[in-house]
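Two entries, shown back to back:
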Amino acid sequence: MILNVIKKTISEYHLIEKGDTVLIGLSGGADSVCLTHALKSLQNELEITLYTAHLNHGIRGEEAERDEKFSKDFSSSLGITCFTKRCNIPIEAKNVGESEETVGRKLRYSFFSDLCEKYHIDKIATAHNKNDNAETLLMNFMRGCSTSGLSGIPFMRGNIIRPILNISREDIEKYCHDNHLEYVTDSTNLTEEYTRNKIRRTFIPMIQCEFNPNFVNVVTDNARLIKEDNDYIEKSAYTAYLDIVKDNAVSVSELLKIEMPIRRRIVRHMMRDIYDGLNDISSKYSDDILSLLEKNSGVSVNLPKDVVAKIEYGKLIIEHTKAKMNEFSYELRIGSQMFVPELGLEAKIRKTEKRENDGAIYLSCDDCDKIIIRNRRSGDKFSPSGMNGTKKVKDYFIDKKIPRSERDLVSIIEINGNVAAVGNRVDEKYLFKHKGIRIELKRL
């Protein structure tokens, strides 16, 4: 029974805690309809609050309008509030020079993330299933991804959870049929215009027909084993990375003492430090960098997005070729305003006993003696509201997909030496309660 599988998955991977508020990405297709109905059925048992969200991509005209209306009506029938938003993916994709599929995914998660911040939502539930996992594995394999990419779709990443990842598309459709659930079909899924559709509609059926009818289960089971091995090696590599890499530079002699699987992962950690949130990086680039280790000082290799890897004075260094903004900080005094030239912002700060949805930053603190506005510093960390635990500001930027070129332009509010807010995201400790301070940042 699907509900039992979902409960087991939630428990095994700690996807949901009692009291959580969960936002479900609802496209209107069978997968997301199944997920929404299942979580609604388990709502009282799990003690959770549910919302749904639907992004109209503006691609399929009347069909997209149909999907949006269906999602709102289906949510309403279950007593769930549905948030909707419209955008024009083709125009956005053309403007940034990326595929519609990539831009659609970015805008969808950005929409979900904004809702989480505004309504203090804990988790985002997406309807990825076992077949999606198999398709992703094949795509990653053909793209030359590392073992990390061959580990499949994770059950949880940050606050994004996938409760039906262990369930096949066939079982999902059966669940909808057995529960008399209608759903809509995206006509673009029936074409082979996109790579994933070709894998879904042609490649996997051919493998199932000609070689192994149980292919989807086999490949996802193998992915689980790969993930377990990879997680173990990654843990060792990350420990070594923290030990020998300083300011994204490492001694060549130290690196050469380390076995290749760990060495390669250390280089990949250095690359992740530089790049703006790439979940996986082609092994070609790490191999290009590793080839430098046996060469003399002064050699280098150019990498995408104005990044260079080079050997200088016995060290491997990976860095941006463009200069980083100088550090700056200004003290804010309650009841006053200040111009921050590096950000092009005017900051106004005052005491308040009421919070409004006006885009300002609202903070509460017992002792607000020294309030600073500045740009990021190496080692900055905070506890983003609505999330569990502490996160490095660098990792927060990566999760939010903020380009590296823009990260120095994100305001950091510091109170008595602690990061209280990153942009508009407030630290859990400084969440506004009954009274506090209001900081308005106005771009001039």
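entry 2 starts here
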Amino acid sequence: MRHIQAELRVLSDGEIEQIHEASVQILSKIGLHVPNAQVCRAAAALGAKTDGETVRIPSEALAPILAEARAGRHAFPKAGHTVRKITGNVSTQVFTYDYSTGTRRRGTLQDVRDGIALIEGLPNIPRSGAVVLPSDVPLPDVMCYREIYQRARKDGGTYVLSAYAARYILEMARVMGRTVSYLLDTVSPLSFTRESLEIGLLFAQAGMPLEMTPLVMAGSTAPVTLAGALAQQNAEVLGLLFLIYALTGKIAKYVGSAHSNDLMHSMMCSFGSPNQVLFGIATAQMAAFYGLASGSNSGLTDALAPDFQAGFEKSFSAVCSVLAGSDAIGGQGIVGADQGFSFAQLVLDDAWLDAVNYALAGFEVNEDTLGLDTLKQVGIGGNFLSELHTVAHMRTSWWANEVFPRQTFSEAQAPETALARAQARANALILENRAEDPVIPASLVQQLDEIVGEALRCRPEAGQ
């Protein structure tokens, strides 16, 4: 048996049914605030009950979509597959934090370019993205997409901030022949903004996918109990499944980003409390109940420095959610609970992801790997350093990463920290992979520049 086999559970089958029934009641009795007539009409066509901007979804309208999900008619692995690998992604932040100077500032377009270069050299971050929202340019989401398309060899994207910007981002994606998705999310509890629905319609009309990650906050935008927060998260996920299907005809992946608020102290949203472990496991179980692959905001931390707290919180929730069946974790490179982005932190995150994936891959037991013939030759009291069996297998039997080396004390120098190594590696990768010239043909560069130029000229504030 080559791979890790595990099934972490925090919910019994009966409790899963209870959460499902509570969610169905929320959707059918309370409903969702959907301030867009076209989306309401699409929902009504699938059997939803609309009353002005309130959409209620009876169980009989939801049932056919859940049946499709359970039948596996979607574009991602069905629930129940054993997770063999996890990857990281970047979640666009407002601030950049530099650990070496202890300074936090608003992100810039140069940070975005440096982030693209860094991601190029990180194997466990497969998609590029804007590491920050650049504060020094207009239409930052449009500008970020141009940077990603012109400078990144990996595909990627960032948050779409307005319906105005969405039109130009979709046009750039068309020129590039890329698929670009929109994160159509609720504003908990149980609501949408007009702008997000308008953007979602534009993406659906362009044949682009819609995704979800409802972020309920236990104690502020959801019941304080984990059971209550999970029921509301599940209701918002099911509501999004229904509306996304109504707009695109496609089943979306089950992604839930429930968190708890620190009600008794700071009111901060927590990224690293043990509740994230429980939310991650329960989210995986609820997704599996519907036959869907899942993601949750795991692998995160509340720590503002990459210290023991950060490493413990990140690994605890990430490993538990993966062993429960989730194949997607939260955005990496984040300082604390969305307090900023750190280039060094992203390098650290890529390293621990590599270690986790090494363990998830397991090891083989066969005649060759058992090495009995070599054991017989070496015999009692010998050593294996010079054996051909050792030479043949030593690279595949050891995990090596320059960010997490094996160290010994030396009188010549003080022990080096992982943060120092990560910062040095970040600096080196940015220099190595920085694309001073676009990585796409000049004809595409010209088309992208023309689209961005029109977006800048025609934006409402440009004429003021």
